[in-house]
Amino acid sequence: MRSKIYDSPAAALEGVLFDGMTIMSGGFGLTGNPESLIPEIRASGVQRLTVISNNAGANNFGLWMLLQSRQITKMIASYVGDNKLFEQQYLSGELELELTPQGTLAERIRAGGAGIPAFYTATGAGTLLAEGKPAEMFEGRDYVRETWLRADLAIVKAWKADPAGNLVFRRTARNFNPEMATAARVTVVEVEEIVPAGSIDPDLVHTPGIYVDRIVQCTINEKRIEKLMTRPREVA
C-alpha cells in the first residue's frame, strides 16, 4: 500500500489544489489550526477559494494569510470578530460570507461526512439567518432546514498519527478537525508526532485512518495565545 506520509507540507498538497475549490480548515480561534499547510496554499497561488472554517484566523496568522493574498472569495463561518481584514473585505463587498451558527456549522459538516443531505434545527428559525430556507413546524416549534457541507479538501491538524492515518487530537485542538476529516474528497493532516504502527490504543483513536489520505509532520507549531488575560499577583 502506498505510504500516506509525505516529506513536506508542499508535497502533501501537490496535485490537490485548483482554482475555485472548496477547502475545510480546522481550528477554533488560534487552536488546532493547520499552521503548516496554510502557507503552502498561499504559496501555490490558487485562487477563488471557498473556505469553510469556524473563523478566518487572526491578524497575521492562519487563514488571515489567504485573505491578505486575496485568494479567498467566500467564507462559510460562524465567527467574524477580531479580524479587521475579514471585516474590511466583507463590508467592501470583496468577500462573500455565509454566516452559520456555530453548532449548526459543526452539524452541517458532520452531516456531510455521514452522507446526510439535510436536517432540521430550531437554531436560527425566525431570524435573518433563516431567510430563503425551507422551514417546518414539529411539535409546535419552528425548525429551519439546513444542508450538509462537503469540500474538495480538508486541512486538519492533529496531535498524533500512525502510518495508517489514525488520529489523536489534544484537548480543545480537537474542535472541528475530526468532522472535517470525514467530509472532504481529500483529507490532508499535519501532525505534531508520527508514531509507529500499533502504538495508538484503538480505544483512543479520534479519527480512523480510513478518512485520512495524506499525513505530514508539522513544520510550524507556534500554538499562539489569542488573548492573554492576567491579574496582579496577590501580595504574600
Give an account of the 3D structure.
By secondary structure, this protein is an alpha/beta fold. It has one domain (9-121, 133-217): Glutaconate Coenzyme A-transferase. The protein contains 6 helices and 11 strands. Strands 1, 2, 3, 4, 8, 9, 10 and 11 form an 8-stranded mixed sheet that branches. The protein is globular and about 55 Å long. It starts with 8 loop residues before the first helix and ends in a 19-residue tail after the last strand.
Could you list some keywords that capture this structure?
CoA_trans_fam_I; alpha/beta; 3-oxoacid_CoA-transf_A; globular; transferase activity; 236 residues; eight-stranded mixed β-sheet; transferase; Glutaconate Coenzyme A-transferase; single chain; NagB/RpiA_transferase-like
SSE layout and pairing:
Layout: H1 9-13, E1 22-25, H2 38-44, E2 49-52, H3 64-68, E3 72-77, H4 84-91, E4 96-99, H5 102-114, E5 118-121, E6 135-138, E7 141-147, E8 151-161, E9 167-168, H6 177-182, E10 184-194, E11 214-217
Describe the structure in brief:
It holds the Pfam family CoA_trans. It contains six helices and eleven strands.
